[in-house]
């Protein structure tokens, strides 16, 4: 067997953390042959709750769980980290302006970026889940100049999975029939779930749907506003599905996409598809041997262009705002 992989999870005592840690420990993140050591980061007031979760993890006697350490200091939590799941963030509360939200998150993701730079392992892979995920990832990345920028990613896999599920339901096919779905842009209401390059049982998905009105007025808003619909129904935001998407994101990054398929990841743009270089935007990507590549050469029609441009414009605004605040 391999030596254990260090997985640092921030916001470990939160609701996503509670749904996430047990799946990491049971082998779903890195596979059935890879032991893991959990390094949990919380704010001091939540350390006790994290300790409670750690007690439950112990009580599962997971064969792959090689240890749990709990920290309230980012430098210690990221020391030796191979994988970092950045879940803890400052949510937007009533009456909060965007500038305040970005500033509060800068206070979290700047020191975490510095801690990653200082002590993470050379092969560190970072997934930011905490919102605003794309821009939080950008802040952390800006403060880790010694880590290759492409190791900082943001989660749009939940949006991706939601889109697959909606499309499969519409067409009455199993989710396994859906390939090459893409989420473009920001993990926000402006995101663009793209069916024009997706396939259903080998056929173009937009053609299989054959209903532009459904695509525009039903599918896109349902996927983009699913988070709000979950809050409305459950009285709490998505947790198990978000944790599942985080598992999927890292698992795919490490283990590769299937032949003839791709996934969606928020990654630093290299300028592909006219997305300004450096912003962290979701793209169609293939993964292999722990690295990812943007799928090139897709034809973007006017409908898709306008939607990609709108979500990318929001990311540019967020980047300019955090720049203005001196956070990057
Ligand atoms: P919770 O409020 O349940 O948990 C957040 C936890 O983070 C708390 O325990 C808090 O003490 C901790 N925390 C705060 N600041 C911290 C810091 N500086 N270091 C370490 N821990 C810190 O939120 P939860 O429902 O778990 O959601 C976590 C984040 O995921 C939120 O920002 C949420 O908006 C975001 N989401 C992102 C999604 C995505 O698709 N990218 C979907 C689900 C979710 O909404």
Main attributes of the structure:
single chain; 328 residues; alpha/beta; six-stranded parallel β-sheet; three-stranded antiparallel β-sheet; 14 strands; 43% helix; binds ligand NAX; NAD(P)-bd_dom_sf; EC 1.1.1.37
Helix percent reads 40-55%
Instruction: Please report which band the strand proportion falls in: under 5%, 5-15%, 15-25%, 25-35%, 35-45% or over 45%.
Output: 15-25%
> What's the β-strand tally?
14
Give the distance, in angstroms, between the N- and C-terminal Cα atoms: 41 Å
Sequence of strands across the biggest β-sheet: 3-2-1-4-5-6
Bound molecules: ligand NAX
Low-confidence stretches: none
Tell me, rounded to a whole number, the average pLDDT.
97
String of helices and strands: EHEHEHEHEHEHEEEEEHHHHEEEH
Describe the structure.
The chain has 328 residues and is α/β, with parallel strands linked by helices. It contains eleven helices and 14 strands. Strands 3-2-1-4-5-6 form a six-stranded parallel sheet, sandwiched between helices. Strands 7-10-11 form a three-stranded antiparallel sheet. Strand 2, helix 2 and strand 3 form a beta-alpha-beta unit. Helix 6 runs antiparallel to helix 8. It is globular. The model has no long low-confidence stretch (mean pLDDT 97). The site of ligand NAX has 28 residues, from helix 1.
